[in-house]
Amino acid sequence: QVQVVESGGGLVQPGGSLRLSCAASGSIDSVYTMAWYRQAPGGARELIADITSGGNTDYIDSVQGRFTISRDNAKNTVYLQMNSLKPEDTAIYYCNAMLSTTWSRGVRYFYWGQGTQVTVSS
Question: Which of 42, 70, 81, 120 is deepest in the core (most CB within 10 A)?
Answer without folding.
Answer: 120
